[in-house]
Every structure is written in C-alpha cells, then in structure tokens.
Design brief:
Blueprint (H helix, E strand, L loop, with lengths): L5 H5 L3 H13 L5 H9 L20 E4 L2 E3 L2 H12 L6 E5 L5 H7 L4 E6 L2 H14 L4 E5 L12 E6 L8 H5 L1 E11 L6 E8 L5 E9 L8
Parallel strand pairs: 3-4, 3-6, 4-5, 6-7
Antiparallel strand pairs: 1-2, 7-8, 8-9
Helix pairs in contact: 2-3
Bound molecules: S-adenosyl-L-homocysteine (SAH).
S-adenosyl-L-homocysteine (SAH) binds next to strand 2, helix 5 and strand 4.
C-alpha cells in the first residue's frame, strides 16, 4: 500500500473518510483489513466532480452511461465475503465501473483482474487506477459474463452487476475451493447477494446473504 500515491490525492478528505468508516462499523463491518483500506482509498476521485463533496456518504451515485458506483457499505460487505477465501493471490472483478471496488480490492489482494464492458468507463477507471499508483490491477475491456479466461483459474471472483442467473463461465474459472461473490436476480425483482463455493470439479454450494440492488450484468 505504501507505494500508492493516495496520500497526496486523498489527505484533504481524511476526516470525512474517517466518519464513513465509523458508519460502516455501526452497520456491522468488522474486518480490520477492509476498514483499513477503505479509510485510505480516496472515493471522491471515483465519483463525478459535481458529487465529490458527497462522496463519503454511504450512498451509491451515478457515474454516467446508466451505471453507478456502489454504496460503500455494499463494497465493504462484498469485500468481507471475498476475504473469507483461502487465498487472495489471483482475483477477478466483473464490472469495473468507476474503479472504486477495484481500488479497495487492489489494496488487499496480490493480483486483480477487472473487466468492464463500456469502453469509456474502462478507459476512465484504467487511467485513474494507474494515476493512483496501483501496479497489481489489470483492467480489461470485455464482456465479463464470460469471465476473463486468460488469467483463470481464480481464488475468488466478485461480480458488481447482477445477472438473472449465474453465468457458468464464472464458476468454471474458479479454483476448487474458490468463492464467487455475486448479486443475482432479475431487474425489477429482488436481487440477493450470493456466495458460490466451488467444492469440486462439478459441485458447488450457494449461500444467500442480504438483498441488494445492482445494475444488470449485460450479455452480448
Ligand atoms: N464495481 C463498480 C460498480 C459499477 S456498476 C464500482 O465500484 O464503481 C456495474 C458495472 O458493471 C458497470 O460499469 C457496467 O457497465 C458493468 N457491466 C455490466 N455488465 C457487464 C459485463 N457483462 N461485463 C463487464 N462489465 C459489465
């Protein structure tokens, strides 16, 4: 983490960021590493400038192209669920969006691949993550419902857009024992945050967590 340039870019908002961390703890986030990294990552750089003053509220915001930056509580919760993985060497995120969730994961795992399907968002988040100083995040422009086969298998995968049903490729690209954290459900109906654990070559188990509201995982 020390190599990141986030000191300079982020220090001005440290107090508001500290208040957000208090809020996350009140809501039940306990993982010390998750709290530590979210205290550091400058979320105001990942939202539209017009929204920057509100960027440490526990809310989602529009990021253009009909997409949103996730609510910090949900980012923290999904990160906690992913951190229960046995190993955090090689991780995939589907739905880079603003890059904020990637920035949080990038401070906690060895290597992160993140896939975005909208070219403008891909370019923006790639440039921002580079500018902040991440050396362990690889951004890709691609349809993530196919995962990212080039770097598979993964210790864990996180999707931040919701499919109606889990894309088989995401399970196939998990190591045995690996975990997939994913919101599942049709738009306009209830979505649930699921953790899928791949138990063997052909078997997996599913745990249901809280209800969530994500943008759809589009499939081309
Ligand atoms: N993790 C993001 C959340 C962004 S919202 C953040 O922290 O800001 C979800 C993102 O998933 C959007 O940017 C959307 O364009 C993207 N997305 C939707 N379907 C996708 C797909 N099939 N492959 C890759 N990205 C997808």
């Amino acid at each position: 983490m020390n190599e990141l340039n986030i000191q300079g870019v982020g220090m001005t908002s440290q107090r508001t960021r500290d208040r957000l961390i208090d809020r996350l703890q009140q809501k039940g986030i306990t993982h010390p590493d998750v709290l530590r990294i979210m205290r550091l990552v400058p979320r105001h750089l990942f939202v539209d400038e017009a929204m920057a003053t509100r960027s440490y509220e526990d809310s989602s915001f529009p990021i253009g192209h009909g997409q949103t930056i996730s609510q910090p509580y949900i980012v923290a919760r999904m990160t906690e669920l992913l951190m229960e993985s046995e190993s955090l060497e090689n991780i995939l995120e589907v739905g880079t969006g603003s890059g904020y969730q990637a920035a949080v994961l990038g401070g906690l795992v060895k290597n992160l691949h993140t896939v975005e399907v909208i070219p403008e968002l891909y370019r923006q988040s790639r440039d921002l993550l580079y500018k902040i100083g991440y050396k362990n995040i690889r951004t890709h422009l691609s349809d993530g419902s196919w995962g990212w086969a080039d770097a598979a298998p993964y210790d864990a995968i996180m999707a931040t857009a919701a499919p109606d049903a889990i894309p088989p490729a995401l399970i196939q690209q998990l190591k045995i024992g690996g975990r997939l954290v994913i919101p599942v459900g049709a738009q306009n109906s209830e979505q649930v945050l699921q953790v899928v654990t791949r138990n063997s070559e052909s078997k997996y188990s599913v745990e249901n967590h809280e209800s969530v509201a994500f943008v759809p995982l589009v499939s081309k």
